[in-house]
Design goal:
heterodimer; A: 8-stranded mixed sheet; 15 helices; 14 strands; globular; B: alpha/beta; Arc Repressor Mutant, subunit A; Dna Topoisomerase Vi A Subunit, Chain: A, domain 2; 6-stranded mixed sheet; 13 helices; 17 strands; about 40% helix
């Protein structure tokens, strides 16, 4: 028999796929689709971690980003923060093990979620340049600064320590990471420059010092001297839990009874509510959680659905704030009108979230193009996959025509306008691991639309006023244009003298203009505007991206 | 200068003087004119045409009206100059003259036509008297009629015998006021389409029936309407109208010819033919002659509805209401040429002779 392969032989090839191997082959899932995006993703993951760490330790962040062009599409990326530092034993796992982190299990607003980001960058560097990542970290004065050179064993998904040293580092506390990667550098709307600028807008409490591959240093100084309120960690809310997670939670629970399990592991469940859930699930409150079968867990899910529960607490959300969001926008855009809103937190599937939105209208912005949409999730700018995002869906399904903009149905509105939307949540539902677009949850879309409508209404009254002013200006120019022709007509018919003709013009001007008061001017008054800031990311118009989206 | 021309110049000067006096007294000037629409006419059966009922439209000089105001005055100045120099300008030429008026120029001809119509209504004269001529030419004539015109150089009479154009026809000039007529014809037949006119001329229907044939070519021009009016008044001949069997032929063509239109209500008095009668094709004809038909279009139904609701002429004549409603029920329309279904010359041998002999089949 030729060509037939036995099951035994096939079995030899069948084996576990390491999580590292999987992501090494599927790096686009993590945001490493191409060279340009890889640069962005690497920096983004490191900056996200630095900001999270600083905020958790209640330190005003100061982050230094340096990108050095080493030729041949190789770049050295150095990111240094003044965060709390990382204890020695954790350094290898945090930087060289995928799916390792503190944030996945916590119900708390943070930038990172899955514990993949930075280790994926280390892996990408290793794959494309063969070089290890270099980490330096110190946790406080008098403590040693530890220096590691790390690689990832992709089969085992475990750190491989190349070098472990103690070094001199004149830093009170903080962490520095150096990764060599294959990448390419462009400017424009999806550039690293733009990303850092938007990060500065959404993180007014952070200072970012950035040196780009052209060795130009850009400093984004902090605009607010206080940290955002610390987001509180909350327990999961029963409405948001999924069957598998519920089963896992019960399996590892220390509690002796189902009732105790419910009250301690979930928020908004007291003894009475727990009893009611048990009743609705037809389960005994005394059941041992570790002994619950799959069917019982399913009954419990049904019971939870039937029970009326208070929404989870919303103090776990830390929004940017309408004022600071608007201030950031003013720095970036010279517009005639600004408005912003920060909505009270609400809940989707047991997860609290809050929507903020701001708008800048008119001024130097072009009027015949689609509006510019700027998206943030937990203060992180989203620069890719705009089309797939719930924010975009919300914008195109909002009726902007009643707010004075042009829009064909199902499309982005047209007008001289920038709209910013920020979603803050303990768990932002992204459509993929690369965290570029927000999933289309109806509760989220509804809330974004409410925020857009709120700024839309403010915008509409301004647009109307502006239209009235420009109509009035048009009428005045009309008067100036046509009065002389009334005089010419009368002069020709009645054979008037030149002096009589000019008298007609004079009298008509008085008749027509005396009724119209002083004309209000449309002006751009914006003291926060920062020309240098606005320019960042916008240079090189011909240098358009060739490899994105 | 003729008395009529002097009157027009005086009228233009008076209107302008009023405006001028108000301006130098710092009072916002205004001009007023009859409203030009069907809502401002009534049908006087005795007089036989749409008469104005006196609704006025007045335009005070404001920021919104200053442009039209300026254009109206400049157009009046042009008219005065034309009358004084005994010159003429077609509507299109007047539009081009405005191109020298800098910002006050008209963008499209309909704008200048509207201003011209407004002045015409304001002065209560027709635009030909103000020196403005329409671009379109009048209808064609063949048959038992001699038109007396004058040589523009010598002023000598020219006699034009409309039986001597062979397979061609005499063209009605755009200004007809100076014409005189000689005829012994029994009737004038006004025909909607050039095609039907051609057939009747070819077979010399005018000779057999002793009549005058006029091709309207759609809605008749003012010159054609005036020509038919003069002819019917001066020579006391009946006028019969022959159109397609549809609301356009009945209302837009026949009604305009007989009683005038809403838009030109201020001059209807001279441009209508109250004595005209409608020959066909009527709704009854479509059934009686079993004519091939087409379904009514949306626009036809709208015309029927509008006619019954808003047209004072239809309101006055039960026969026309019935005819329109019958057609709406039948949901069809028929063209003049549909008569050819019974033979190319059925119209000459049967249809028209039957109509001539049977006044009961006409409509008022």
């Amino acid at each position: 028999m030729v060509g037939k392969v036995s099951a035994e032989e096939l079995a030899k090839k069948q084996r576990d796929i390491g999580v590292g191997e999987f992501f090494a082959k599927n790096r686009h899932l993590l945001g490493f689709d191409n060279k340009r995006k890889s640069l962005m993703t690497t920096i983004k993951e490191a900056v996200d971690n630095s900001l999270d760490a600083c905020e958790e330790a209640r330190i005003l962040p100061e982050i230094i980003v340096e990108v050095i062009d080493m030729g041949n599409d190789r770049f050295k990326i150095i990111i240094e923060d003044n965060g709390p530092g990382i204890v020695k034993a954790q350094i290898p796992k945090i930087f060289a093990k995928l799916l390792y982190g503190s944030k996945f299990h916590s119900m708390k607003q943070s930038r990172g979620q899955q514990g993949i980001g930075i280790s994926a960058s280390v892996m990408y560097g290793q794959l494309t340049t063969g070089r290890p990542a270099k980490i330096t970290s110190t946790i406080g004065e008098g403590k040693d600064a530890h220096y590691y050179e790390l690689k990832i064993n992709t089969q085992k998904n475990a750190p491989e320590i190349i070098k472990d040293d103690i070094v001199d580092w004149a830093k009170e506390h903080g962490t520095k990471i150096e990764i060599d990667i294959e990448a390419s550098y462009h400017k424009g709307l999806q550039s690293i420059d733009e990303y850092l600028k938007q990060t500065a807008i959404s993180n007014p409490h952070a200072t970012i010092i950035y040196t780009n591959p052209k060795a130009e240093q850009i400093i984004f100084p902090r605009a607010a001297n206080s940290l955002p309120a610390e987001p509180k960690e909350i327990k999961p809310h029963p409405y948001g839990v999924e069957l598998g997670i519920l089963m896992r939670m019960m399996k590892y629970s220390q509690e002796k009874t189902l009732q105790q399990f419910l009250t301690t592991e979930f928020s908004r469940v007291g003894a009475g509510t727990a009893k009611q859930i048990c009743e609705n699930s037809a389960l005994l409150p005394k059941t041992k959680p570790t002994k619950m079968s799959r069917d019982m867990a399913e009954k419990l899910m049904e019971g939870i659905k039937k029970t009326k529960l208070i929404n989870p607490p919303t103090d776990c959300i830390s929004p940017i704030g309408a004022d600071l969001l608007e201030k950031g926008l003013r720095k970036e855009i010279n517009a005639e009108f600004y408005a912003s809103v920060s909505r009270a937190p609400v809940v989707y599937r047991g997860n609290p979230f809050a929507i903020e939105a701001a708008v800048a209208y008119g001024g130097e912005q072009k009027g015949d193009d689609a509006i510019r949409l700027v998206r943030f999730a937990n203060r992180v700018p989203l620069l890719f996959q705009q089309g797939a995002c719930a924010v975009t869906k919300s914008v195109v399904t909002t009726g902007w025509r009643s707010y004075g903009m042009n829009q064909s149905s199902g499309n982005m509105p047209i007008g001289p306008c920038t709209i910013v939307v920020h979603i803050a949540s303990v768990w932002v539902p992204f459509t993929s691991e690369s965290k570029e677009a927000i999933a289309h949850y109806p509760e989220i879309i509804k809330e974004i639309k409410l925020a857009l409508q709120e700024i839309g209404r403010k915008l509409a009254s301004y647009v109307r006023k502006r239209k009235n002013i420009s109509d009035e200006a048009k009428k005045r120019s009309y008067i100036e244009k046509y009065i002389p022709h009334v005089a010419i007509g009368l002069k020709e018919i009645l054979k008037l003298k030149d002096s009589e003709e000019s008298n007609i013009v004079h009298m008509l001007e008085e008749i027509l203009e005396q009724k119209r008061g002083k004309l209000e001017e449309i002006k751009v008054v914006n003291e926060d505007y920062d020309e240098e800031f606005a320019k960042i990311g916008k240079e090189d118009p011909e240098d358009k991206g060739d490899d994105d989206e | 200068m003729s008395k009529q021309n002097k009157n027009i110049i005086k009228e233009i000067e008076d209107v302008s003087n009023d405006i001028y006096k108000k301006i130098i007294k710092k009072i916002p000037p205004e001009i007023s004119m009859p409203l030009r629409s069907l809502s401002n006419v009534k049908y006087e059966a005795k007089a036989g045409f749409f008469e104005l009922i006196g609704k006025m439209k007045s335009r005070t000089l404001t920021a919104n009206t200053v442009k039209t105001f300026a254009q109206t005055l400049r157009m009046m100045a042009l008219s005065k100059q034309l009358v004084e120099t005994k010159d003429i300008a077609t509507k299109r030429e007047a539009y081009y003259v405005s191109k020298n008026w800098a910002e006050a120029r008209f963008k499209e001809q309909p704008e200048s036509d509207t201003v011209m119509d407004d002045i015409e209504a304001m002065m209560r004269v027709n635009r030909e008297q103000m020196g403005f001529l329409p671009e379109e030419k009048g209808g064609d004539i063949a048959g038992k009629l001699t038109v007396i015109d004058y040589d523009s150089e010598t002023g000598k009479e020219i006699k034009i015998d409309c039986t001597k154009f062979g397979s061609g026809a005499y063209s009605i000039p755009s200004s007809v006021e100076q014409l005189k007529f000689e005829t012994n014809a029994d009737f004038v037949l006004a025909i909607e389409t050039a095609g039907m006119f051609q057939r009747l001329v070819k077979h010399k229907f005018w000779k057999k029936a002793n009549g005058i044939l006029i091709s309207l070519g759609g809605v008749p021009t003012r010159a054609t309407r005036r020509f038919i009016r003069k002819l019917s008044d001066e020579k006391k001949i009946p006028v019969y109208v022959f159109t397609d069997g549809d609301p356009y032929g009945w209302l837009n063509i026949y009604r305009t010819l007989k009683v005038g239109s809403g838009n030109a209500a201020h001059i209807n008095e001279y441009f209508c033919v109250p004595k005209a009668k409608f020959f066909g094709i009527t709704a009854q004809d479509i059934t009686k002659y079993d004519l091939p038909s087409h379904p009514l279009k949306e626009v036809d139904l709208k015309r029927i509805k509008d006619g019954i609701k808003n047209d004072p002429f239809v309101n006055h004549h039960k026969e026309w209401q019935k005819c329109l409603l019958d057609l709406a029920k039948m949901k069809i329309r028929a063209e003049q040429q549909a008569l050819a279904a019974h033979g190319l010359n059925f119209v000459i041998s049967d249809y028209l002779p039957e109509k001539l002999n049977n006044p009961k089949s006409w409509l008022p």
